[in-house]
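User: Run a structure prediction on this.
Assistant: Running it now.
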Amino acid sequence: MKKFVSLLLALMMALSLVACGSKADTTTDDKTDDDTVTEPANALEKIKADGVLTVALSPDFSPMEFVDSSKTGQDQYVGFDITLAKYIAENLGVELAIEPMGFDASQTAVYTGSVPMSISGYSWTEDRAQNYELSDYYYAGENETRQALLIKKADKYTSPEDLAGQDVGAQNASLQMQLVTEQLTDANPISIGDITVGVMELKSGNIEALAVAYGNAEMIVDANPDLVKYAQPSMTCFNYFFNLADADRPTYDLKVRQAICYAIDRQKIIDTILHGSATLADGMIAPIVACYTPTPTYDYDLEKAKQLMAESSYPNGCDLIMVTNQSQQRLEICQVVQKMLKELNINVEISTYEQATYIQALNEHEHDMGFSAWITSTGDADYTYYPCYHSTQKGKPGNRSFFDNPKADELIEKGRSLSDPEARKEVYSELNQIIYENCAAVHLPSAYGRGLHQVCRGLRQQQGRLQPAVDCEVPAELISAADLSQKGLSQIEMH
């Protein structure tokens, strides 16, 4: 219990400080010292004295806080944040009173001291940190909150520039409004009261796009098939690279590598772990990159995978070591792949390392498979082909498979010496065929870039359970609150 108290104390500290600008009236009039009533010294003491914790929130952000229309009164307010508020009130020994109001109004209410506290899916921002006492975080995304822009299917916005001069809605005083203002500088930000109203405004054509948290976008699109999530293509591709350097490893066998590629259902990974926010990759170069050419792929085919495994040097299966860094999302993908490869009697041991140790393990060949991401950050194909596939780069960042093919070297060198884009594409097309035939890696998804992004803090999914990103215990009732959403809390981001 001690560990959870550290989180609770952080919340309690916030309660004591948010109202620090309001001093208690110490006037005694004609009362004697014995008759003087001592006012509570701070907000926390006042809450205990009154026996009520009043919490402001905007109940339009499922599953964090929303209205259950089958209930009335205080019982109609449900969600993860409601459960958290109840837990805090219970630990204080007081009743809980929910004050529903607009998202911006809930912040103003705390600022003016009319309520001591608001729990409404807040993300950390510098402005909020300067104007409010914030608790420790209690929920987080992978590294960034996944914000989304909703548009109508009939519209064809493919870049931020397309939204110049267009009305883009977002809740006033929300993180989405901040990001729209900062990142879509040529758009017209439009304040909306709540998300439901924003959806109606979008569908009626009063606004051209609506900025919401990604989890909300998922639910809104499910309920409104005439709306879609706006996404920009990305230069990032995720991949499993095989160790081709050590002849005693199963991955040295081409048929084992091919079997693994066919056995991995890449689309399933996109649909589940990545929540649809990616597209299938056909190599380490995304289509947006200059001189990209399509590469043949190993599409999911379990029967073909089993056949190739039977023809390999390991017909009865084998053991593999899969390494990755401590990214929670990468670990979850590795766990899915681990389960998929059991169909081939391949037993995968997953080893996670902090980044420096992860690199060392790769350099020392302590892996059969490694999971990584590659960003073609220059926007040109050579930035990927040379470091990832040229033999001189074996063991260096990029060529972690220790790929070594003289013909590939020749084509890579030729491609980087040419200036004509079409001529380069012809060279890279031939190179891609060699890469495909040698099966140096499993190319997973190419992630979608997002028009809006922001660093976030809090709880994370770990080992299939909701776990804190800080050193504290989370009560079972908070974990079970994830069931309030059909989507599950792992898909819901903060506003």
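The chain is about 35% helix and 20% strand.
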